[in-house]
Each structure stands twice: as structure tokens, then as C-alpha cells.
Amino acid sequence: MPQFCVKWAGNEYEIDGLQESHTVFDLKEAIAKETQVLPHRQKLLNLKCKGRPAPDATQLGQLDLKAGFKVMMVGSREETISSAIEKPSDLPVVEDDFDIKEEKIDVKDRQEFLCKVERRIREYKINQLNEPRKGKKLLVLDIDYTLFDHRSSAESGAELMRPYLHEFLTSAYEDYDIVIWSATSMKWVEEKMKLLKVSSNSSYKIVCFMDDLAMISVMSEKHGFVNVKPLGVIWGKYPQYKPSNTIILDDCSRNFLMNPQNGLKIPPFREAHLNRHKDRVLLHMSQYLKSIAKMDDFSSLDHSKWRKYL
């Protein structure tokens, strides 16, 4: 794949590291990192597909770009836009019956991010460990700081494991199929689950492990560019799971940006040597999951208030 040169505001920016399977939106994200112009503010004037402006979902390999191709971009940074539209403080107050406010689109509804989810559904290969069970809801679990303190030192994995992990998984398995999804590579997911004896436990079974390759990058005003865990990837692979019967536990709330209704931010488990004798979070999580398991639809729940619900 040729290196891109982007011309903007009298300067040229080199963009590399992209492959033919990446999309125009991936290119825009790379440009944003160099120029701080957000993807939805960019207009790439000479990037064409079949004679028309290339849509964000178009793969770069479809554009037949030549080596040394220069992309002409028009766009403005957020601070430039803000200063341009800021009203002078000395203007008289005037009522405007035609005041139009720009509608903000939530991250979860942005078409460019939904296209990324569709791409993961098509391309991400799930190594299924056990068959999903009919009629079960879905519980998705993070690893680091959720089930395991991966930063502290210890002589054994048991000392870094969150207290009551196996009791929690055994209880949850009665009502939920379980997926483990970590923002690390599959090698480390498998190693940690083996270390914690999750993979071989006879009291419960895991449907599959998922890693960082199933995640997507999004842009949000609060967090900037971040990688998130879109549950739509699982729903696309396994239609029996859906927004109404899925819950994901993670110590990092930004992982829920594509599915805020389904996320429960769990208190992180750190400094295991100090806290493993007093941490009871997974016991409380077991009670909460059991109390909502009979509900037909989770859509009405506010998981951030799980303590009050108990």
C-alpha cells in the first residue's frame, strides 16, 4: 500500500501504516492524529471511487492509488470553529425565532463506527470453545482489573485473582452464557485464563475468548480517540444474543461507548496484596446478575445503580 501525503493548510503530512483492507474512514482517523481535524470535519477533495467522492466505508484497495498520491484536504480544527462562531460579548440581545442548533450524533449512532462493527462481524474469526445454550442471556467480562490484577507482583496467579472469581462464574453460568473479552492479544487472554484456571473449570464453560482485534477505534468529545468493545460484533456472530439480553462488566466505562445501555462499570481490583482479603465485589455482582436474570428485557435497567437495585 503506498504511503499517503495529505496536503492541508499549506502543509504536507505523511500518512503510513495503512493496508488495502483499511477504509477511507481509517485514513481519516490517521489524518486526524496528524492534523487534529476530526474525521467528520474532513473533506478529501480528490479521493474518488468510480468518479465520485469515496464513501467512508470504501476499502483503500478499491481506489487504485498510485505511489506518491497526494490527498487534498479541506477542514478545520474544533478550536478554530469555536473561535469563529463565538459571539462578541458586546452584541445586543436579540431574540431569534430561527435559531438552529446543530444536532449531535451519539458515538453509538455514527455511521462510520457502525461500518467498522460490520467489518469486524465479517472479518473477525471467533475461536468458539463451547456451544451457546438456548434461552441463556449473555455476560461479557473484561479481564485486567475486573477479574485479575495484572500489575501487582505475586508468587502465584491465585494471589492476583479477584476473590470469589470461580464462585461468581459458577453462579453466573446458571443463567448466562459467558464471553471473556480483553483489550490484549489472544495469546495473553489464553495465558491468563489458564493461569486463573478458568479454561479448565468443570463448574462452568466459556463460549469464547475475544481479544483486541475485535475492538474498534472511535472518536468522542470526552475521550478523544479510543478503542472500544462493540457488542454488535457478538450480536452479529450470534443472533440469539441482543441488546435486551446482554450485559458487559468492565472497569473502564469508555469500552461501553458503542453500547452504553449494556455496560456496568465494575470497581477495579488493584493492589491485590492489600485488597484480596476484603474485596467482595464479585459476590455483589453475583447477587445483581441473579436478581435480573429472570427479566425478559434489560433495556429499562440503569446498571450504574446496581447497588440501589440490590
CATH homology superfamily name of the largest domain: HAD superfamily/HAD-like
Strand composition percent: 15-25%
Count of strand segments: 13
Strand order of the largest sheet: 9-8-7-12-13
Give, in order, the helices and strands: EEHEEEEHHEHHEHEEEHEEHHH
CATH class of the largest domain: Alpha Beta
Q: Assign the CATH topology of the largest domain.
A: Rossmann fold
**Termini Cα gap:** 55 Å
Number of domains: 2
What's the shape?
A: elongated
Class by helix and strand content?
A: alpha/beta
Poorly predicted regions are 94-103
Name the CATH architecture of the largest domain: 3-Layer(aba) Sandwich
Mean pLDDT: 88
Radius of gyration: 23 Å
- Level of helix content? 25-40%
By DSSP (H or I, 4+ residues per run), the number of helices equals 10
Structure in a nutshell:
With 310 residues, the protein is α/β, with parallel strands linked by helices. It has helices at 24-35, 78-85, 111-123, 157-160, 165-173, 186-195, 232-237, 272-275, 281-292, 306-309; strands at residues 4-8, 11-15, 43-44, 48-49, 52-53, 70-74, 137-141, 176-181, 208-210, 216-220, 224-228, 246-250, 263-265. Helix 5 runs parallel beside helix 9.
